[in-house]
Amino acid sequence: MSSTELPPVPAVNALPKVSPVEAEGGERLRSVRLPGATLAVRSGSSGNKGLPPALYVHGLGGSSQNWSALMPLLDGLVDGEAVDLPGFGDSPPPDDGDYSVTGHARAVIRYLDAAERGPVHLFGNSLGGAVATRVAAVRPDLVRTLSLVSPALPEVFIQRGAIPTGLLALPGMASLFTRCTKEWTPEERVRGVMALCYGDPGRVSPEGFRNAVEEMERRLRLPYFWDAMARSARGIVNAYTLGGQHGLWRQAERVLAPTLLVYGGRDQLVSFRMARRAARSFRDSRLLTLPDAGHVAMMEYPEQVAAAFRELLAAAGPPAGPGAVVAGGSDRAGAGS
C-alpha cells in the first residue's frame, strides 16, 4: 500500500472550509494505492491516534465529505477515516471498471487488510450501507460494530424518489440524461440533490451550499463522472435482484457485529417502513428513527446519530480477545452484483 498526500478539500455540508493551516489539526486527505484501485482516504483529528479505528463509507454520488459533520462528534471515541469509493470523490475509477456492490466491498476489504486497521467500527450510508453489510457478512473479522444510515437494501416497492436511480442503470440513460440536463447550472443540480436527500434542505447553511456547488462543478468536469454513477446504480439494481446466500437480506442475517440502524421519516430514496424489517434481519441490532430526517441523517442530525453510536459502543463493550471471531481470510465479497 502506498500513500501520498492530497491537498485539503472543502466539506460538502455545513462545515467551514478547511484551509491548509487548519487542516493540520483537522481532516487530511491522502491517496492509497491498492491492488485494482486507488482510494482517497480522509482522516479525522490527529489526536485520535491509538483509539479504536472506524471507517465511513458514503452513498451513490457522495464522497467521504458526507461524514465530515459526524466525524468530529466522535473525536475521543474512535480514530475515524472515510473513504471515497472508486470513481467517487477524489478516487479514480477502479482498474477493472467494476462498480458493483461486490466490487466496492472488495475495495473496502482490500483497504482494511492493507492498512491493518481491523476490526473497525464500520459506518455506511445508502449504497455504502449495502457495501458495509456485505463486508460485515463475508469478513466478520474486520468489523467490530456496524452503523447503517438508510442502507440500500432490497425493497419490493421502491420509493418514487428512487426511480431515477433505477432508470440511470439502464444502458444509454446516462448519456440521455446528460443531454437533457446540459443547460442545468451547478446550483440547480445541487438544489435538486438536496431536495431529494434532505428532509429539510433549509438546514444547509449558505456556505455549505456554496461548497456543494463548487464540488458539483469539479465533479462535472471529470470524464468518468456519469459512467461511475450509471455503473454504480446498475450495481445497486443488480444487488436488489440477487438471491440466495449472496442476497443482501440473507447477508444481513449473517452479520455478527452489533448493529445500529438509522432511518429517516422523510427519506425519499429508502423507505422508512424498511426499518422494522432491517431490525429483524440484523441479529444484534438497535434502531434509531428520526421522523424529520431524509436520506442523509448523519449530515442533517449528526448529534443524534453520534449519541446513538455512543450507546451502541457502550453496549458492545470492549473488543473480544484474539480468536473470538473466525477470520474470513479473503478479500472476496461474494458473487453476483
UniProtKB/TrEMBL annotation:
The keyword tRNA-binding does not apply. Keywords: Hydrolase. The keyword Kinase does not apply. Coiled coil: none annotated. Gene3D superfamilies: alpha/beta hydrolase. Residues 55-308 form the AB hydrolase-1 domain. GO terms for molecular function: hydrolase activity. Pfam families: Abhydrolase_6 (PF12697). This is Alpha/beta hydrolase. It comes from Streptomyces macrolidinus.
